[in-house]
TrEMBL record:
Keywords: ATP-binding, Chaperone, Nucleotide-binding, Phosphoprotein, Stress response. SUPFAM superfamilies: Actin-like ATPase domain, Heat shock protein 70kD (HSP70), peptide-binding domain. Belongs to the heat shock protein 70 family. It comes from the Bacteria. This is Molecular chaperone DnaK. Gene3D superfamilies: 3.30.420.40, Actin, Chain A, domain 4, Substrate Binding Domain Of DNAk, Chain A, domain 1. Pfam families: HSP70 (PF00012).
Length: 524
């Protein structure tokens, strides 16, 4: 059995393993492609289609097709198909299943031990859901790794001798549906995610949309009396597909012609790279603005020079991306298989983890993952990261009774972190306080209740006869893997409330049942 790295992407996924000479290799799917659309088509109760064919099925049977499921990871939002409800974990598990089944068929080795990549901004619930997706797919998830870390591993940005001193790396990741920028620093073998920022709804598919709109405009100019092609789902799906093809082709050529067909009419629209750049300029500008924000945040953390700028995500193949970074920041970005780098890096990291597990005796001998004979010595990276979200406590304003959230840990605080603060009872004779641990839900920290999710709660007893403003001490600790623990103490009695975050995800039993259900479905 081999150790695999999997990039479970919002729009495309990819799987890689370490070959016999110790290099990461991407395994093609059965259709012969390096990446597989993260699309699942529930064809019937016992048959599921994943990948390009599922994407194609959108034309004929859109209600049974799921796209962009990664955006729902960590939420409890099951969807029903053919009389059965599927959680986001279960839907993602079907993508993973397709990837490893195909990898086995094309690469020849059964997958059991895997590392799955996750965006750096993923919180606890999303990370947990990703692990569970792997378990449902019948895999043993050795670990999850942040996507920019995986990409940096693949780019070799972390290699080399430690005498070179501290290094800083900026990762610009423009995928199909999301954009992230992350700054990493490397000191010896100590890798730190310094800060991360991005937009969850900005990616290559927005570029496709602009092309679609342009194609439709040209078609309607030519045939003013014909219906809008966008009013017909079939024509629309075809247009989106053609627009994406055109966009991809224009990364390598200057012009490309799309034939727009609708109601028996055809208009050939010629697109140039320049035209697409003009149609999508503001989208690229948004990524530049966010990158600038990240660069400024890094400067506040003392990093003002980047040894490497890495391009990740399929959409960075558009030459306009590197060009914008060159002209706006003077960067010399590296572009090398940007849509495969995360899976390849996850495979490198998987090898690292497997070697660690082997050497630490964490598992019984008969369950050890097989580490290829690479002849390499193993020196694991110490990966430390920042909090991906803010964490706080729900408080009540005494005079107005307004409820709000006070954050003790903030996004981008270096991990591990431990913060102690004191809070006070609202009235005399109060016998208990309710401790509600809140996780920031949106991109920005906000004290509004609605912008936070309650991730754990409990009651702490207070001795009788205490005046108002009686103090309660709270300690928030976030360890280096991002696990949150909260301890509230009433000092006089020594009464203590210890909370660990209950992640809203699936229970081990539910995971086992889901794994069973998956194994009974046919895949293609
Ligand atoms: P994800 O966002 O799921 O991680 P990828 O990193 O593979 O996925 O990025 C997918 C996006 O990259 C899609 O919008 C796709 O159209 C785009 N893409 C892939 N190849 C090219 C290319 N040659 N030129 C421009 N865009 C591309
Ligand atoms: Mg990606």
């Amino acid at each position: 059995m081999a150790v695999y790295g999997i990039d479970l992407g919002t729009t495309y996924s990819c799987v890689a393993r370490i070959d016999d000479v110790g290099r990461p290799t991407v395994l093609r799917n059965m259709e012969g492609a390096d990446t597989t659309p993260s699309v699942v088509y529930f064809e019937s109760a016992d048959s599921v289609v994943v990948g390009q064919s599922a994407k194609d099925a959108t034309v004929l049977d859109p209600v049974h097709v799921v796209q962009l499921i990664k955006r729902d990871m960590g939420d409890v939002v099951p969807r029903e198909f053919h009389g059965r409800a599927y959680t986001p974990e279960e839907i993602s598990a079907r993508i993973l299943r397709k990837l490893v089944e195909d990898a086995k068929a094309t690469g020849g080795k059964e997958a059991r031990d895997v590392v799955i990549s996750v965006p750096a901004y993923f919180g606890l619930a999303e990370r947990d859901a990703t692990r569970k997706a792997g378990e449902i797919a019948g895999l043993r998830v050795l670990d999850v790794v942040a996507e920019p870390v995986a990409a940096a591993l693949d780019y070799g940005a972390l290699d080399g001798d430690e005498e070179r001193g501290d290094r800083a790396i900026l990762v610009y990741d423009l995928g199909g549906g999301t954009f992230d920028t992350t700054v990493l620093t490397l000191r010896g073998r100590e890798l730190t995610v310094l800060c991360t920022d991005g937009a969850k709804e900005l990616g290559g598919s927005d570029f496709d949309d602009r092309i679609v709109v342009h194609l439709v405009e040209r078609f309607r100019e030519r045939f003013p009396d014909v219906d809008d092609p966008l009013s017909d789902p079939q024509s629309e799906t075809q247009l989106r597909k053609d627009a994406e093809e055109a966009k991809k082709a224009l990364s390598f050529r200057e012009r490309y012609t799309v034939r727009v067909m609708h109601q028996g009419r055809v208009e050939a629209v010629e697109l140039t790279r320049e035209k697409v750049r003009e149609l999508t300029g503001d989208l690229l500008d948004r990524t530049v603005d966010i990158t600038r924000r990240t660069v400024e945040l890094a400067a506040e953390h003392g990093v003002s020079h980047f040894d490497e700028v890495l391009l990740v995500g399929g959409a960075t193949k558009m030459p306009a991306v590197a060009e914008a970074l060159r002209t706006q920041f003077g960067f010399e970005p590296k572009l090398h298989n940007p849509d495969l780098a995360v899976a390849r890096g996850a495979a490198i990291y998987a090898l690292d983890r497997a070697a660690y597990i082997v050497s630490s005796g964490e598992l019984p001998a008969d369950q050890l993952p097989v580490v290829p004979e690479t002849g390499l010595t193993h020196r694991p990276y110490q990966i430390s990261t920042v909090a991906s979200r803010g964490y706080g406590i729900q408080l009540v304003e005494r005079d107005t009774d307004r409820r709000y959230v006070f954050h003790l840990v903030h996004a981008n605080d270096p991990l591990p972190v431990s913060v102690t603060d004191e809070f006070y009872t609202t009235h005399a004779g109060q016998r208990s306080v309710r401790i509600r641990v809140m996780e920031q839900a949106g991109v920005e920290e906000s004290e509004e209740l609605a912008h936070n999710a309650c991730v754990a709660e409990g009651h702490l007893a207070i001795p009788p006869g205490k005046p108002e403003n009686w103090p309660i001490q709270c300690v928030y600790t976030l360890d280096s893997s991002g696990l949150l623990g909260v301890v509230a103490v009433e000092k006089e009695s020594g009464e203590k409330l210890e909370l660990t975050v209950q992640i809203g995800g699936m229970t081990p039993d539910a995971v086992a049942t889901a794994r069973d259900a998956l194994s009974r479905q046919r895949f293609s």
